Each structure stands twice: as structure tokens, then as C-alpha cells.
């Protein structure tokens, strides 16, 4: 299914407000610090960021990748639809001695001019914008010719992709034109989004080793408490305790299925770098 640009402005604004509220719910900074913190430096390193470059992090969240880029001496803008996450990001940046700019921004309508940045990157961020082609168009638009584009996204087949697949039967139907976030972790899909506007495309599937959870139940309960998309599904099921219980079982079983022993799991992601034409 190919996404289409929303034609109803008010409906699109309502969708973005819903997304902002979803990511502001729970405690995403706990995910950022306790689970996915290593991913930001991985992406910054893959982008080859150097001192003085102007860097945009799209869907920056609390800034794991943006802070890593700033520590390389780059001039960094950390942008996100959900500014409620910025206070935790600012605290983390200050603790690490990083200086950067924080700006609220919709990944599908970035408030920046054409060809502004030497590096445009997103670490498990832009993948959650509902209209993939619009978001990809914006990534390319704000990048200078010859700029580096770097994307790190969960794969459909990996643990987080399978978590979304597990939740899908329990979730409300997506809005018209929206596409599943883990498609950004599919090489063919992302290369189709970017098309001939990029060259020197390199993709690699890697895994984040997670040893935070001692059992499938512990993983489920943590995500139920802190992760916006999971919280949203459980809220949707608020009046259906039997379906909530079924989702409880399914998520716990997913965690157990990926447990390699001793609570260690590998969460697969796609790392893509390219150069804009």
C-alpha cells in the first residue's frame, strides 16, 4: 500500500496531536536511557559526523543520536513532534557536556529551508511518521546536495517489528494512508521512498542486545507502563478486560520467544546511509 498525502488539514492536525499525546504518555525517557541508548552513537558514527557540520536529527526524542553528533563538534538541531521529551534530552545533553538546539517539528512538514543541512539523520524516529513518502521527501529536501542521510529503523521481522504485529489485532485501524512504522526497516521500501534522489546507499542489518528484562512478563509490564504505542493500545481496550488479558498473554509470549537465555534478547534494526544527489 502506498501512502497518500492527507487532503483534510484538520484531520491531519488531529492525527499529529494524537501522535504527540501518545509519545508524551508514559515515560519514553526510560526507554531511551535504559534500553535503546546505544543506538544513537551507532547512527552518529555511521554518518561520519565531523566538527562544524550542520546536522538535523528528525524524530530525535530525548536526543540519543543528536547528543552523540553534538559531542563530535557538529552544530545540531534535535527536532521532534513531541517537545515534552526535550527536558529529559536537555538534562542528558548537559550531563554529557553537549550543546545543541531543540525544536518542535513535524517530520512530514519540517520547518527548515531547502538544502540547509550537511547531515540529516533519524534514529527510530521518522519511522513513526504516518505518511512515509511525505517524511522521506522532507528528509531529502532539507539536505544539501552531497549531504549524508542516515536512518536507523526497527525491521518488520525483528523484535519490535513483531511487537507491533502482535499489537495490531488489538489496536484501532490506522488512519487512511498511514503505513506501518517497521516498513522503514525494509531495505526495498526505504530505497523506493528515496528513489534516485540518493546514491551510495549502504544498508546493514544489525541487532541491539537487550538484557534489561528477566522474563517476557517483565518486558510486557515495562512497555505497558512507559511506551506510548503500547499504552495507546491498552487504553483502546479499556472496556474489554478479556482482550486486555489476551494481549497480556501475547506480549509475554513474544518476550519469551525472543529470550536467548538469561533474559538476553537481540532486537534487529536496519542501518542505512546514503548521499543525496
UniProtKB/TrEMBL annotation:
Its GO biological process terms? methylation
Any single GO molecular-function term of the entry would be:
S-adenosylmethionine-dependent methyltransferase activity
Tagged with keyword Repressor: no
Q: Which UniProt keywords apply?
A: Methyltransferase, Transferase
Methyltransferase type domain location is 56-149
State whether keyword DNA-binding applies: no
The entry's protein name is: SAM-dependent methyltransferase
Q: Name one Pfam family in it.
A: Methyltransf_11
Native organism: Nocardioides gansuensis
Q: Which InterPro entries match?
A: Methyltransf_11 (IPR013216), SAM-dependent_MTases_sf (IPR029063)
